[in-house]
Write a structure and sequence with these properties.
The complex is a heterodimer.
Chain A: H1 6-12, H2 14-32, H3 39-48, H4 50-64, H5 72-88, H6 95-119, H7 124-143, H8 166-184, H9 186-196, H10 198-203, H11 208-234, H12 246-255, H13 267-286, H14 294-325
Helix pairs in contact in A: 1-2, 2-13, 2-14, 4-8, 4-11, 4-12, 4-13, 5-6, 5-7, 5-11, 6-7, 6-11, 8-9, 9-11, 12-13, 13-14
Chain B: E1 5-16, E2 19-30, E3 34-38, H1 45-52, E4 60-65, E5 68-70, H2 75-80, E6 83-86, H3 98-102, E7 109-110, E8 113-114, H4 116-129, H5 145-158, E9 163-167, H6 175-190, E10 194-198, H7 202-208, E11 211-216, E12 219-225, H8 231-239, E13 257-266, E14 270-278, E15 282-287, H9 293-300, E16 308-313, E17 316-318, H10 323-329, E18 331-334, H11 338-342, H12 349-354, H13 358-361, H14 369-382, H15 399-411, E19 418-422, H16 430-445, E20 449-453, H17 457-463, E21 466-471, E22 474-480, H18 486-493
Helix pairs in contact in B: 14-15
């Protein structure tokens, strides 16, 4: 049998092509701005993008079932504001308890999304759009449009402050758990089954509704967790926190090869996608691109990577068809 | 003697990366002729049609239209040359009206304004000429498949096509609708149009075609006069071997009653349906499309909720509320639509096979992939699936092999007692059909109860011990293997004049 050449390897696997993109990106950046890859800078990138990286895992699950969740940053704000206020008014200061409460709020928000989408068959983008407004509104309501300042959350913010391992531990744990679950457990397999062909999954005895509810609940949990983490990392809570950033999370997944039609995508791809977004955001000013042009460049890069994805997918589909003819 | 050929293709070779989809094939179409194109799935028929319609470009060969060599750059060239294709699954716009669909791309325009009234009138004329039972102003999404096909034919007529290509036109039609389509094709021929049609049904060919061309394994096998070739010879030409016994139904000593449903009803779909199966028995469930067969079975298997009805397994009443309940009880459904309901096409064969038994295999929550592979391999080999590995995606298999994967998926469920096969051989070629029948025979021998839903009379008669016929949502009769004939089935399937349209005063 003929050995695959490098080009075939790259076009043969989406993750490989993402790694290639990442390497090219890093080489270019490193040449234009040496010391980009210095450990301090790298760890800064992860810390600054911890929320996107974390929520991308939930978005992966949601998108695998052919869904989408645009309410996540509202959930994040609702959970974040709640724990911010709990500290501001000196009700709770225990870090663990605050994490628990924030995540629980996220779970409830996600569960509601899941129930409405699975049981009432409301299309995901509509349902989560509704909650996008509701939870963002709740973030303002619970705080009375006040902020929780650095002083309010002092102590708690030690968990996420610069140099603390907290955010990294959460990220590593989350990625390891999701990698294992998606690859080696029956729950992961069911998510892929439901996303690839819900009808066939149902007839094969899988409880499709329960799977859908689960993924939105997981998404909510991660959004709630991200809300708490956000307050800890940035040492403040504002009702408009992470406003509009849900698109970065979706973009990370899309760049990572997660299909909007469901059934296709991986934890590794999601990680690489989120990383590419993070690196672009960090590197653009360093290589001398004006802040005003950054969105422009980001958009172009997103489209370029997605088109590369499509080409890769076509090559793979074509290989399957060739096999069928023989 | 020079024949009046409207279309001739010589030495067509089409190469896809790694495979010759057509290898030096020939074809001649006389003016005013209906010509059948037959062959197993994957024989190259569809590719060939796409060469004629300009979708694919052949690497080698020549095409002559009215004696002139032509070279189509794309589908538009073919359309302009008067070649129209009507596909098995109509490619229409469901939200638009019939008129809009018919004139899509060649609207009647004057001064930049679309002439709706003129177009509607013209469309209605075309529909009338085809004896259509729908109006030009109807929305296409509300039409049946047969009506949509008729619309496609009207569309082809509106472009003044001279050559009509019908790709498996009767595959989705009931007997009545097929009859109507035959009438339309007859009319096209009388009007001097030429027709090429692809079909797996011999009935279509005998009814319509004067000549038949057979492809096998991407090659041209021959062109025959329909009057001059026997069924057996034709099958031999198609599969390259003689099929002496198409229906390997053995006489098996039947056991006790294994499965029975009583008084199944669902408003608007079926009413008071009861039937039973014994161990080792193959029960056929037939009737016209729309008689409620699939709907009944879906309710029995917990996919839809019936209004009432009882299910007995081995004499004991069981409750089936969702598909998993039926599976846990050992009642396994092989759904009608392999691609939509039976398989996850993007997945490997192995994963498809073990999907229903995931929970058993992954008791701890973690998948036991080694066990999965072993089981999948065993069951796929049991049904003789032609595949390279269990990891190749299901989409890479032909229809017949996909159906075998669906069977393997059922076999993997070791608690299986009753198998319900909904149209198990629909759209698969003759060779694969026979293999499916053999598998059914083996399952019966092992003592499973088998229910086969089918619209194809030969297989219903050839394979069933007993046949339940449904009509209008009810069981209209039960025939035993000994006294069944096509006529009796048809009689039970068709609406009786006296009972038709309840409420009408005679």
């Amino acid at each position: 049998m003929k050995k695959k050449n490098i080009w075939q390897t790259i076009t043969g696997s989406r993750e490989a092509s993402l790694v290639a993109v990442l390497v090219v990106l890093l080489v270019v950046i490193e040449i234009m701005s040496p010391s980009f890859l210095a450990p301090a800078n790298v760890s800064q990138i992860f810390r600054n993008n911890a929320l996107t990286l974390l929520m991308a895992l939930g978005m992966l699950c949601v998108m695998l079932t052919a869904g989408i969740d645009i309410s996540i940053t509202s959930t994040l704000a609702f959970a974040g504001m709640t724990i911010g206020m709990l500290q501001k008014y000196n009700i709770i200061h225990n870090t663990f308890l605050l994490f628990l409460i924030g995540s629980a709020i996220g779970v409830v928000c996600g569960l509601l999304n899941g129930l409405i989408i699975a049981k009432a068959k409301v299309s995901p983008i509509i349902c989560t759009m509704g909650f996008m407004y509701i939870w963002r509104g709740m973030a303002y309501v619970v705080s009375g449009n006040a902020w929780a300042s650095g002083a309010d959350v002092a102590g708690f913010s030690d968990f996420g402050k610069d140099g603390s391992p907290g955010p990294y531990i959460i990220l590593i744990l989350a990625y390891v758990i999701f990698f294992v679950v998606m690859k080696w457990t029956r729950f992961g397999r069911k998510i892929y089954a439901v996303g690839s062909n819900p009808e066939a999954a149902r007839i094969s005895g899988i409880n499709v509704d329960r799977t859908v509810i689960s993924v939105y609940t997981i998404m909510g949990f991660l959004a709630g967790l991200a809300g708490v983490l956000s307050v800890s990392i940035y040492a403040s809570a504002q009702p408009n926190m992470q406003y509009g950033k849900e698109m970065d999370v979706i973009a990370a997944c899309v760049i990572g090869g997660v299909s909007m039609n469901g059934g296709r995508g991986s934890v590794a791809g999601t990680f690489l996608g989120a990383l590419i977004i993070a690196i672009i955001a960090k590197a653009l000013p360093l290589v001398g691109i004006d802040a005003i042009a950054q969105n422009l460049v980001k958009g172009i890069i997103i489209l370029a990577v997605v088109i590369l994805n499509v080409i890769t997918q076509r090559a793979m589909d074509h290989q399957n068809l060739v096999r069928r003819e023989m | 003697m020079a024949e009046d050929l409207i279309l001739e293709l010589k030495g067509i070779t089409k190469i896809f990366p790694g495979v010759k989809a057509l290898n030096n094939v020939h074809f001649q179409l006389r003016r005013g002729e209906v010509h059948a194109l037959m062959g197993e799935n994957g024989a190259g028929k569809s590719t060939f049609i796409k060469v004629i319609t300009g979708v694919h470009k052949a690497e080698e060969g020549q095409m002559f239209l009215n004696g002139q060599e032509v070279d189509f750059k794309g589908p538009l060239d073919a359309q302009e040359a008067g070649i129209a294709a009507v596909y098995q699954h109509p490619t229409s716009y469901p939200e638009l009206t019939v008129t809009e669909n018919i004139f899509m791309g060649h609207e009647t325009v004057s001064g930049g304004i679309i002439r709706w009234r003129e177009m509607n009138e013209k469309a209605q004329e075309l529909l009338d000429s085809l004896d259509a039972d729908f109006k030009a102003t109807d929305e296409v999404g509300a039409l049946s498949v047969a009506q949509q096909q008729m619309m496609e034919i009207a569309k082809a007529l509106s472009t003044n096509a001279q050559i009509f290509i019908l790709d498996e036109p009767t595959a989705a039609l009931t007997a009545n609708e097929s009859e109507k389509l035959y009438g339309i094709v007859d009319r096209l021929r009388e009007d001097g149009k030429s027709v090429i049609f692809i079909s797996h049904r011999f009935e279509d060919m005998y009814r319509l075609a004067s000549r038949v061309t057979v492809f096998r394994d991407s090659q041209y096998i021959g062109t025959y006069d329909v009057d001059g070739i026997s069924n057996a010879d034709l099958i031999k030409a198609m599969v390259g071997r003689e099929i002496t016994d198409m229906y390997p139904k053995e006489d098996i000593k039947l056991g006790e009653e294994i499965f029975r449903i009583e008084n199944f009803s669902r408003t608007g779909y079926f009413k008071d349906v009861s039937f039973d199966v014994r161990a080792g028995e193959i029960v056929g469930l037939t009737g016209l499309v729309g008689a409620g067969r699939t709907e009944t079975i879906e309710s029995v298997c917990g996919i839809t909720k019936p209004d009432s009805g009882k299910v007995y397994l081995e004499g004991k009443e069981i409750s089936i509320k969702k598909p998993k309940d039926a599976m846990d009880a050992g009642v396994i459904l092989l759904p009608e639509d392999r691609q939509k309901q039976g398989l996850i096409l993007s997945w490997g064969l192995g994963r498809n096979v073990t999907l229903p038994i995931q929970d058993e295999l992954a008791k701890t929550g973690f998948n036991d992939e080694a066990k999965e592979r072993e089981l999948a391999k065993k069951h796929l080999e049991d049904v003789d699936t032609k595949a390279v590995t269990i990891f190749q995606p299901a989409s890479s298999l032909s229809g017949g092999n996909q159906q075998k994967v669906v069977v393997a998926k059922a076999l993997a469920q070791s608690n299986m007692k009753v198998v319900i096969m909904d149209e198990p051989t629909k759209g698969i070629d003759v060779g694969a059909k026979k293999e499916i029948y053999e598998i059914m025979g083996q399952l019966a021998k092992k003592g499973y109860g088998i229910i086969m839903i089918s619209s194809e009379m030969p297989e219903i008669i050839g394979m069933s011990d007993r046949i339940f016929v449904m009509r209008g949502g009810r069981v209209s009769g039960c025939l035993s293997r000994d006294d069944v004939t096509q006529e009796k089935i048809l009689e039970l399937s068709m609406e009786q004049n006296s009972s038709a349209k309840g409420g009408e005063v005679a």
